[in-house]
Structure to design on (572 residues):
């Protein structure tokens, strides 16, 4: 299926009560609209609500207040229309690669032959055809991430929620997976929400960066840089400005909005 | 690796163990020739090997009670080696049948019950404390009660073994289900899997390694309960042959039966290992063996 859905988030609060009785406000009055087909990165420090927001959209966290809508419907639980990629390795170790990729398809009313065809197609697109009959234990960490990508894309979920999916991978593997993910996104036009604490990663991937701090969205930055975003593009003044702004939001100096930053730069230039 | 290679490797790794066994066998033989004979059956208190595999083995034909294929000594027939083999096969087959039936019913029942009680946290809490108490019950002390309830027959023995095995699997299953990493269940839910499907495709395979560790425990348990049940109340099976031998202080026969049980148990462990390595072939190697060792070690501590 080509195309993504919009996500509408209105006045969402998420308050957890620990067993000690201590209350944690993980999300405080978050409202945001995500357009169909956007690639949005959620950036912020650990424990500031990124994963909570992502899991809430996935239907895995209950909301204390507010509502989240996908398309026209309220999110009340997990659904195959919202695929999730977790930070941990979630490839089912007791299923061969092909059975992993077919897992989501088997919950859908399609024939076994069609399931196999779709699974093969996605295995091909992530370049794992030769490993279709392997056990996950025989694959590297990067290959297992590609299995997960094939699995969630194969279900046809047009919203993909990714929680620091490449955090545990080495630098080179991560770059390869970035370009793979961007390819898949371009060809499917799905809506992607990608959590990361790595500003550089956000800059490579995102159309739009949401900065989170203390359970709130504190900035909403449109990244209007040409792709592919190689080192030269990321060294452009606009890119550097974005990195600085995010850094300031995350506690590396006084907070300045992107447009203020631009003005400051202009003053220095004069 | 060729067969010759494997045999050589095995011998190189285990030679010291085989030496110890050889020393024990020789020491037994010497003790056999020095020890006095029991009054009733004229069997040496420590029966030497040639006595066990000669006189005692032939004596096993006493337990062949049917008047075909070989003469039945009970009906005035002669003791024959064929009769001995038939008697051993007959009683072994009965014992093995009880063991296998008990294991199958106990495993299936225990795992299904464990899965059912894992369905909700309320049911889990409901089961947890009574289960701890249930596991404390001395199993062999319950043989008479079980025989009173279910009869001193094969049905009673199978029920008893199934109970002993089932309690272990029930507890293991509840524990194993609660140990499944939540990430797999969440991932499956976001892929659109129903609760039934998660039970079948995620929960069941994910608890297999821990269940596998319990199989080793329950195999031992099943062997001791089936022999226990036959020893106390049944009129057939090798446990029964054992108690007959004991009635007449027939140490040679007792030794022979013990050796037989060791042989059967070894074969059943080896068979299980083959099946387990097939079912658990998805696991990173040696993790299963480690889990099994850790679990049995823990049990020994208790």
């Amino acid at each position: 299926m080509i195309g993504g859905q919009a996500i509408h988030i209105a006045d969402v609060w998420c308050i957890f009560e620990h067993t000690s009785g201590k209350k944690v406000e993980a999300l405080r009055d978050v409202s945001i609209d995500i357009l169909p087909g956007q690639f949005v990165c959620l950036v912020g420090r650990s424990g500031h609500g990124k994963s909570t927001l992502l899991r809430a959209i996935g239907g895995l966290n209950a909301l204390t207040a507010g509502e989240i809508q996908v398309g026209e419907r309220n999110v009340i639980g997990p659904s195959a229309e919202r695929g999730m990629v977790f930070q941990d390795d979630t490839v089912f170790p007791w299923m061969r690669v092909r059975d992993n990729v077919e897992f989501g398809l088997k919950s859908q009313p399609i024939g076994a032959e069609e399931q196999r065809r779709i699974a093969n197609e996605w295995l091909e697109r992530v370049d794992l055809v030769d490993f279709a009959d392997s056990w996950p234990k025989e694959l590297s960490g990067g290959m297992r991430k590609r299995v997960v990508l094939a699995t969630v894309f194969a279900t046809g979920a047009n919203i993909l929620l990714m929680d620091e999916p490449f955090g545990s991978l080495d630098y080179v593997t991560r770059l390869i997976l970035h370009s793979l993910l961007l390819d898949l996104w371009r060809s499917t036009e799905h809506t992607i929400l990608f959590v990361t604490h790595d500003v550089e990663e956000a800059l490579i991937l995102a159309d739009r960066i949401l900065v989170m701090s203390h359970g709130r969205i504190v900035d909403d930055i449109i990244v209007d840089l040409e792709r592919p975003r190689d080192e030269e593009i990321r060294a452009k003044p606009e890119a550097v400005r974005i990195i600085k702004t995010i850094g300031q939001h995350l506690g590396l100096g006084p907070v300045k909005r992107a447009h203020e930053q631009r003005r400051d730069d202009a003053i220095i230039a004069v | 690796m060729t067969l010759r290679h494997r045999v050589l490797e095995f011998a190189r790794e285990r030679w010291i163990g085989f030496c110890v066994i050889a020393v024990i066998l020789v020491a037994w033989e010497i003790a056999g020739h020095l020890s006095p004979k029991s009054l009733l059956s004229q069997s040496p208190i420590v029966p030497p090997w040639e006595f066990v595999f000669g006189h005692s083995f032939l004596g096993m034909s006493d337990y062949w009670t049917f008047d075909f294929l070989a003469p039945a000594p009970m009906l005035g027939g002669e003791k024959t080696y064929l009769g001995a083999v038939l008697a051993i096969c007959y009683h072994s087959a009965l014992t093995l049948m009880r063991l296998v039936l008990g294991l199958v019913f106990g495993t299936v029942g225990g795992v299904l019950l464990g899965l059912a009680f894992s369905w909700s946290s309320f049911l889990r809490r409901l089961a947890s404390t009574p289960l701890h108490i249930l596991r404390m019950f001395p199993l062999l002390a319950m043989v008479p009660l079980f025989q009173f309830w279910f009869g001193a027959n094969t049905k009673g023995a199978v029920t008893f073994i199934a109970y002993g095995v089932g309690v272990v699997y029930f507890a293991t299953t509840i524990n194993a289900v609660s140990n499944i990493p939540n990430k797999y269940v969440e991932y499956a839910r976001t892929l659109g899997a129903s609760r039934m499907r998660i039970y079948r495709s995620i929960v069941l395979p994910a608890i297999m390694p821990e269940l596998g560790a319990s199989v080793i425990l329950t195999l031992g348990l099943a062997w001791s309960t089936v022999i226990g049940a036959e020893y106390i109340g049944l009129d057939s099976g090798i446990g029964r042959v054992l108690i007959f031998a004991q009635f007449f202080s027939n140490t040679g026969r007792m030794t022979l039966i013990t050796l037989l049980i060791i042989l059967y148990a070894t074969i059943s462990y080896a068979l299980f290992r083959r099946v387990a390595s097939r079912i658990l072939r998805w696991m990173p190697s040696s993790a299963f063996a480690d889990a099994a060792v850790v679990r049995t070690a823990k049990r020994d501590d208790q």
Notes: The interface with chain B takes residues 58-60, 77-80, 82-84, 86, 88, 90, 92-95, 103-104, 106-108, 135-137, 151-152, 155 of chain A (CB under 8 Å).
